[in-house]
Amino acid sequence: MLFEKNDKILFIGDSISDYDRARPVGEGLFNAWGTSYVSCVGATLCSAYPELNLRVVNMGIGGNQVRDLQKRWRTDVIDLHPDWVSVLIGINDVWRQFDSPQMPETHVSPEAFEEGYAQLIDQTLPAVKGMILMSPYFMEPNRQDPMRARMDEYGAIVRRLAEKNGLLFVDLQAAWDELFRYMHPCNIAWDRIHPNQIGCMHIARQFLKAVGADR
Amino acid sequence: MLFEKNDKILFIGDSISDYDRARPVGEGLFNAWGTSYVSCVGATLCSAYPELNLRVVNMGIGGNQVRDLQKRWRTDVIDLHPDWVSVLIGINDVWRQFDSPQMPETHVSPEAFEEGYAQLIDQTLPAVKGMILMSPYFMEPNRQDPMRARMDEYGAIVRRLAEKNGLLFVDLQAAWDELFRYMHPCNIAWDRIHPNQIGCMHIARQFLKAVGADR
Amino acid sequence: MLFEKNDKILFIGDSISDYDRARPVGEGLFNAWGTSYVSCVGATLCSAYPELNLRVVNMGIGGNQVRDLQKRWRTDVIDLHPDWVSVLIGINDVWRQFDSPQMPETHVSPEAFEEGYAQLIDQTLPAVKGMILMSPYFMEPNRQDPMRARMDEYGAIVRRLAEKNGLLFVDLQAAWDELFRYMHPCNIAWDRIHPNQIGCMHIARQFLKAVGADR
Amino acid sequence: MLFEKNDKILFIGDSISDYDRARPVGEGLFNAWGTSYVSCVGATLCSAYPELNLRVVNMGIGGNQVRDLQKRWRTDVIDLHPDWVSVLIGINDVWRQFDSPQMPETHVSPEAFEEGYAQLIDQTLPAVKGMILMSPYFMEPNRQDPMRARMDEYGAIVRRLAEKNGLLFVDLQAAWDELFRYMHPCNIAWDRIHPNQIGCMHIARQFLKAVGADR
Amino acid sequence: MLFEKNDKILFIGDSISDYDRARPVGEGLFNAWGTSYVSCVGATLCSAYPELNLRVVNMGIGGNQVRDLQKRWRTDVIDLHPDWVSVLIGINDVWRQFDSPQMPETHVSPEAFEEGYAQLIDQTLPAVKGMILMSPYFMEPNRQDPMRARMDEYGAIVRRLAEKNGLLFVDLQAAWDELFRYMHPCNIAWDRIHPNQIGCMHIARQFLKAVGADR
Amino acid sequence: MLFEKNDKILFIGDSISDYDRARPVGEGLFNAWGTSYVSCVGATLCSAYPELNLRVVNMGIGGNQVRDLQKRWRTDVIDLHPDWVSVLIGINDVWRQFDSPQMPETHVSPEAFEEGYAQLIDQTLPAVKGMILMSPYFMEPNRQDPMRARMDEYGAIVRRLAEKNGLLFVDLQAAWDELFRYMHPCNIAWDRIHPNQIGCMHIARQFLKAVGADR
Amino acid sequence: MLFEKNDKILFIGDSISDYDRARPVGEGLFNAWGTSYVSCVGATLCSAYPELNLRVVNMGIGGNQVRDLQKRWRTDVIDLHPDWVSVLIGINDVWRQFDSPQMPETHVSPEAFEEGYAQLIDQTLPAVKGMILMSPYFMEPNRQDPMRARMDEYGAIVRRLAEKNGLLFVDLQAAWDELFRYMHPCNIAWDRIHPNQIGCMHIARQFLKAVGADR
Amino acid sequence: MLFEKNDKILFIGDSISDYDRARPVGEGLFNAWGTSYVSCVGATLCSAYPELNLRVVNMGIGGNQVRDLQKRWRTDVIDLHPDWVSVLIGINDVWRQFDSPQMPETHVSPEAFEEGYAQLIDQTLPAVKGMILMSPYFMEPNRQDPMRARMDEYGAIVRRLAEKNGLLFVDLQAAWDELFRYMHPCNIAWDRIHPNQIGCMHIARQFLKAVGADR
């Protein structure tokens, strides 16, 4: 298993991570993790590895794009001194291109996405044991769908960044695709983005598998 | 134009019609029509044909399937003595097959759908000037998507029933398909079912075109 | 049709435009246009001219008079870089003279109204493709009513400003008068100012006709 | 002064009387009279004639027409054993004809109004010391306005019924007309029906004058 | 009658005046006067003297003592340029001495009360046509009750200040005493301070009598 | 001490007992006793006599008069099988005579009060170890006040009934009178009826003294 | 793995299962499972075994004891035709003995518990593929604590019933004891009963292990 | 009895004192003391010693640790000029070590606790008549429980500080232990920290005994 005794694992991202987590810091009493995949991961790690005394923090904020993470990276990631940082970003960078096509200022181009994401990694690596990058996704089985195709582009960027930096990469898009062999996307998320409890657990399970938490 | 002076036009269906209409009868003061396509249609008719003194009633109820309409058809349609009845039903009959595959009691088969729908028509025609049938739809451009394919089946049933009974048929699925040439579905509805204001107006415009309201 | 591909059309005014639009900017997801005539216009344009990818923004604020627009014109109009600006102002400038006669500081004289309005136009014209001016109105059929008479004065000012600057003028007062041939004002607005859904659509239809949107 | 020691005076009518009175009976602790003219009358009588120990009850219900009063007259008037009954009804009987012209079942014809009203009086007179009838009104100065003209018809019916039965008649329409010599209707009621505090007091003052309460 | 055409009359005081008046200024649309005696006075004046176009403003704030008025006198009285100022203060100056005996910092001594009140008058008189002073009161019939006796002291101070400055004095304590010949205080106010609607009207009637408003 | 191991003590009365106790039965988890003197008594007994395992139940209901107790005595007292019943009733029987003098149907005469109270006792005594009667009270130091004088009459009735039946009598009126030597009633209750926390504890202390709970 | 394609698994119990599940049936859209261990189980099964199309239903109700299950077993279990029934009951049967010692009617004796539980099993077994029994628990590490000792008695009853009927038994008490080697109970539940997210996941993991769901 | 006429007694601490007290200062009208032991103490003192006119102030804030008291000691204690200060702190200093073991920054070591507490005492003694120190506690009967053992350490620190400074010490832990001879902790507090009404009264009774309030 990747994590060691007393490690602090920080999750950051958009609404998929947020799901009503506590402010300003998503950690501690009263289910401060919210109800996203982060709480599934945190609860599983604490239940399965109680001897490790792991510390899980959820810093997701709904609607965030990579450039929002850049603005708050110092206070919301670096200053919290995590041992590990898990990132799930990019969905809103793409989504706005399709649900708000008239508003180009809400779009993030692949170039800006890659550059911004790379800066986050560069800022973080010197200070942590490692990072886990999760692919943005669109729960659309049809790869010809233009938003799916676009999301795949961004997913490929994240994969490339992970490979370049030797980081763990969790391919959520592939995980959904596997699931869609048995069920329609609307069994997981009406809007093909925000997973229900099944979907949150599915993300968590991909993460846990990637970090070798197999108890 | 189809409608004549003092005609009463009743719309019935599911959440697509409902959109917070007044209870028990969606008619009268305080925007009782709610905010669905029904209010777009009603407002346009009253603005464009003020001399006709038309009466528009919204009887949609969220979540309804054809069998729910059957149960309330007497009180919610016949007893209100409409001159025209417009029906938009079938979406939930199909949707549950995909978002709740484990719960077959929530599914309505094509046969049950057709039979139930036909009974509604038979009960109504003797008492009205006419009916307008709107196709159920799924805002999914990919015709190979299983839910889209399934919805097309139900749409075909509605079209067949309209033709058989000589009724106006409004092909909403075709109207969305046309729109998707220029925009992604998520610009109209995040869940591909419940239209935003653009989508409500788009439905209303198909209806108005069908009834010849071209002022 | 007046508008061209990718044009941004900004609507500004008082509560008649506002109707619960999003803050700070009335544009984007979650029906940010509110429920006024602006959403009827925006939804119709996007439904009928999907290929134009038009951008509609609602910047109305309830209770505004011309002097309120002057204070926020820089941030709320100019800085948003619209291609077209549609203005509907003047109702509160007059109304306060009649519902708050004891409070002269809430009244705006015709001179101040004209001067303020002219300044708005002068500031805007260099930066846009054009402006559309809508007349303030009072849904009072009796032209001898003192508030109607007063409102007609202000409407005449707006018409004069439109003509002087070669701008489109939408005569809403005339549109209501036409409607009142068939119905009493209280069928449109209990307070003779704030239109119900029929009235909102009626305003929208006058606007659409004026800009040549006839699909 | 009309009223005598320990007299119970019951007010009945529509929203103009109701104004959030207590249910089921509008009498007693915690400002149970609501905030309509009834509380102005009740408070003035109790302040000015404390030695009379008068009892004031408000039984108005918003939206009521004469036929609604008929249905609840037994429980809401007769069974409460008032010494005096004051009636203000008819506004909704007329208003619906103009704000809901498409819905004839919401209209009350002059004949039905007169007959219903006459029955109320006949049922009541044997059991009380007297009745006070207040004219329905529309705060429209223009007597040519069709709703004003219609309301005047109903006001005339009430006056006729009062005269025929030797009852006190309070001409509220005339009282508003007098007031409109100095102010516009919108200074009293935005919808020309529901008075603000000035209007409530104005109704109360007409009533008090009529019953000779001049302290 | 004391007031002349277009006069502005400002009422200031504590919760007895406040009763949910609008902030920051208790004047204008939507019953901004609240529901205290101020609205009874305002409504009566506007109903009875419509030709005078009087302007009534309510600036009461719950819990205020004379020293609170001093702090806000500039902004809440002088800067609003009233023609007449009516003051009802002193109840909380005394009440705290009895309901919070342990907290001397919440008490206002007679000397501080008189001095503070005198300063308010001195600041105001040069700028207005006149002031009306209302006595603080305690709805306790028993003059031997220590709080009643104390309140009478403060009432005497107000009377003395009125006489010294030639101002109208409204003796509310005497008005309650008169009323208590016929009813127990708990018929007016459960806490012997905050009047119900009867009590508010009673205060208003004393004021109106004092200013000669006898229509 | 009066109570023995496992005794169940039931308190019944009006709002003075109620103070937001749980429904339908005021006993058990989540502070079901509410916040009246009953919780002060219950908490003190359980803290001071933990070995007795006493059971305290609060069955007060706001606004109750003796006749309301009669209606619910079977279900709310007898059926709960208490060992001891403590009654505090009579305040509303008197209060209504003074705060609602116009409404004689809300008054309870001394005769009706005594007869009703006696019936409660007769019904209860055979089934319990004993009863404690608490005097109704009015926190008015002036015995000449008519409501205080009237309340004293009812207090005397309760004392007489206690003596006649050999029951414990708790003279709350006397306890307040003692307290008023040092403080004004408004330090205990603004309305002279509903005690604040000091007053609730004061009632509880009288009760505890009467039953000999002196730990 | 225990479950087969299309199996329906029903969970029943008290608040530990309930955690805000949907009413009347805890199944379907909008996270109807609530947030207890049931949702952790359901989500994991659907994520890990998508090809099985399993159906999970949560019928827990807060505060339930075994006798409450008996009353609703017909409608809430049998009539829903589950293939498997998982039961977690007994906590409240014991807890009331300690948090409400004065109220014996809220206690359930071991005999009544065993008899009631056995009846549930007897009623169910003929109609299902199998049952899973989970031990009631108290998150108290000290086995000498009287409530822990008592709970262990009830846990032993459940184990005995499972063995007697050849059913799966999930020993939650043992699972907590294992966890308490590494953390204090208050890291899982402040009241030692209601688990936080870690605790819910821990219960779920015991269940999943027991049924052989090891993907 | 310790307290003298007009003494001001200030209570400070964490949620055990707070229980919804008024902000910013927990003193005065409207039950500003909240519902903790502080109100039991205050109410008892005012009821039993009315001639002393004592002043009780509650300054508890939920979640506070000793270091939080240090930050607000100047404004919340010294500046209020109490004659006596009663402190109940330390529970959260220990609790976080057990419910949030991963978050060491939320823990307060015994050394830091003692040093911080000593500073509070040193700052205060010169300005007051005396201080009362109450032991932090954990309602855990088992002294081997690690959190109980840890809390006992902190309790010993408080006792030592009291002795060293000659202050009254109230041993709440001992008082709970005594109570647990007769009842389980969950009869007082589900989470073993926050007492119900019985527990609040129990704390209050220890305090009152310590200060010699035995009336």
SSE topology:
8 copies of one chain form a homooctamer.
Chain A: E1 8-13, H1 15-18, H2 37-48, E2 55-58, H3 66-76, E3 84-88, H4 91-99, H5 110-124, E4 130-134, H6 146-165, E5 168-170, H7 172-179, H8 197-210
Parallel strand pairs in A: 1-2, 1-3, 3-4, 4-5
Helix pairs in contact in A: 2-8, 3-5, 4-6, 5-6
Describe this entry's structure for a reader.
Eight copies of one chain form a homooctamer. Chain A has 215 residues and is an alpha/beta fold. Chain A has one domain: SGNH hydrolase (Rossmann fold, 3-Layer(aba) Sandwich), CATH 3.40.50.1110. The first copy, chain A, is built from eight helices and five strands. Chain A has helices spanning 15-18, 37-48, 66-76, 91-99, 110-124, 146-165, 172-179, 197-210, and strands spanning 8-13, 55-58, 84-88, 130-134, 168-170. Chain A has a five-stranded parallel β-sheet, with helices on both faces. In chain A, helix 5 runs parallel beside helix 6 (146-165). The N and C termini of chain A lie close together (9 Å). Chains in contact: A-B, A-C, A-G, A-H, B-C, B-D, B-G, C-D, C-E, D-E, D-F, E-F, E-H, F-G, F-H, G-H. Chain A binds chain B through residues 95, 98-101, 141-142, 144-147, 183-184, 186-187, 190-193, and chain B through 95, 98-101, 141-142, 144-147, 183-184, 186-187, 190-193.
